[in-house]
Amino acid sequence: MADRSLGGGKAFHRFAPDFAPLPLRCAGREILVGKERGCESVLAMSMDSELQKHYALLLGIGSPWEVETVALKLAEKKVEIALAWQWGNDAKCPECGRACSIHDSAPERTWRHLDTMQFMTLIRARTPRANCPAHGVKTLQVPWAAPQGRFTLLFERFAVEVLLASGSVSQACELLGLNWDTAQEIMRRAVDRGLERRQLEGLKYLGMDEKSFKRGQSYITLLTDLEQSRVLDVVQERTIEAAGQLWGTLSPEQKQAVEAVAVDMWEPFIKTIEEQVPEADIVHDKFHVSKYLGEAGDKVRRTEHKELMAQGDETLKGSRQLWLYNPQNFSAEQADEFSALKDLHLKVARAWAAKELFSKFWNYQEEGWARRFFKDWYGWVSRSRLKPVIEVARMLKRHLKNLLTYLRHHITNAVTEGLNSKIQSLKAAARGFRNFANYRTRILFFCGKLNLYPQ
Q1: Domain locations along the chain
Q2: Alpha-carbon dihedral angle through residues 289, 290, 292, 296, given to the nearest 10 degrees
Q3: 205-285+418-434 CATH choice from 2.30.110.10, 2.40.50.140, 3.30.420.10, 3.40.50.720
Q4: For residue 136, how far is the Cα from the chain centroid?
Q5: Residue 32 CB neighbours (<10 A)
Q6: What is the pLDDT along the chain (455 residues), one digit of tens a residue?
Q7: In this structure, are residues 187 and 437 in contact, taking their beta carbons and an 8 Å threshold?
C-alpha cells in the first residue's frame, strides 16, 4: 500500500503578506473556510471562529500558535489544518530557553494527525526560528510533534497502540494507512524513547540465550530480565564479542547488583559472564539439560530403529513423539502404547529413563544430597552403553558446579524461552528479517516492556 502519511500543497502562515485562504470543495464546488487579509467570506463569517476554536482545542494549541484555516478536500478525503505563529510574540531558544527575537521561519512542514471522521488529517505550518545570542539561529520545537517527527504526538501514540494490538505489522499498516517502512520508523522512534526512559536498577536475575536470525548458522544473542520477563537488549552473533557487547549496555552498578545468570552451556557465554559479572552465579537450568538428554535419547531411538528395521521389526515406527512428549500430556491411547513400548527392554527406553531420572536432581534442597544423587546417576549412565547419553552425562559432570547453583536461586531460562517463542512468531509474521537493526527494533518493541508512547 502506498504511503499516505504525508500531503503536499502550499503553506498557510502569517509570514506571507499576500496570504489567501484555501478553498473547501463541497458538491464539486470550492468553499472558503478561513480568514482573508482585509475581508471575510460569507461562510467564514458564520463558522470560521467556532471551527478554529474547535480544532485548536482538539489539537491542544494555544498562544502563540493559532489555527488559521481548516480545509476540507472531499475528493482526496483529507482535512488540512494550517497553523500560524502569532506575529509579535517572542520566542525561546530551544537550547537554553532564553527569550529571543524571531529571525525568520523554516520551510513549511506537514505532519500526519489523527483522522477526522475517517478523513486523513494533516497539519501544516512554518516554524519560526529564534535568534539566540548564545546559540545562533535555532528552529523552535512545535508543541504538537517531536523534533524531526513526521506525525503528531497523538497520532504516534495511536499508531503504537494499534501496532501492539494488531496480529501483524501488515495488519496495522492497513488500519493506519501507512506503508511498512513508515510503521518500522514509528517503532524505531518508540523504542528509542523507551530505552531512554527505562529503569534498570535492581536487576537481580538475568538470562542469556541465542536465537536464529537468518537461515544457516546465523544467530542473535539476547539478554533478558527474568524477574520482569523482558528483553533488555539484542546483538548479532553468539560470540564472546557479541556477549561482551550485551554486558556493555549495563552500567558497573547495574552489573554489580546481578546475583545469578541462567545460561546454556555455551562457552562464549560462560566466559563473558565470568569476566563481566564475576560475583554472579552461573545457573545451567533444567530446561536446557532436559533438551540435551532428550536429543541424546532421540539419537538412540534413530539408531535402534534402523537396526530393528533391518531385521523387519517395525516396533519403533512412528514412536518418536512418544519418547519426546511429557507422559502427563498423553491421551489414554498414547499412554497405553507408551507403556507397552517401555516394557520391551529397548535401548531408547533406557535413554528415556535416564532423562526422567535426572529430573529428580532439581528437587534437592541440600547440595550434598544433590551431589550424591548425581554421582549415582552418572555411574548408572556410564554403564548403560548408550553413547549419546554418556556424552551428555560427561558434559553435565564438567558443569556440575553450575548445575548445583540452581538449588540456591531456583531460576531457569523458561522466561527467555517464552520470549524466544514470541520472537519466533514475530519473525514468522514478518516472513523473516534481512536487516538486523529492524529485527532488534521489532524485538524490543514487542518484548522489551518499554514505555513506548510519546509524551
Answers
A1: 23-145, 205-285+418-434, 286-409
A2: 140
A3: 3.30.420.10
A4: 39
A5: 19
A6: 444 444 333 333 333 333 334 444 444 333 444 444 333 333 333 346 778 888 888 888 888 999 999 998 999 999 999 999 988 887 889 999 888 888 899 999 999 999 988 899 999 999 999 999 999 999 999 999 998 889 999 999 999 999 999 988 999 999 999 999 999 999 999 999 999 999 998 899 999 999 888 776 789 999 999 999 999 999 999 999 999 999 999 999 999 999 999 999 999 999 999 999 999 999 998 888 999 999 999 999 999 999 999 999 999 999 999 999 888 888 999 999 999 998 888 999 999 999 999 999 999 999 999 999 999 999 999 999 999 999 999 999 999 999 999 999 999 989 999 999 999 999 888 877 888 999 999 999 999 999 999 98
A7: no
CA 131 to chain centre: 41
Peptide bond into 64 cis (omega under 30): yes
Contact (Cβ atoms closer than 8 angstroms) between residue 283 and residue 204: no
Integer angstrom CA distances of residue 215 from 119, 209, 347, 353, 430:
43, 18, 34, 35, 14
Q: Count the residues in the chain.
A: 455
Place of cell 467556532: 50
Contact indicator for 334, 350 with CB cutoff of 8 Å: no
Amino acid at 101: S
Residue 34 identity: G
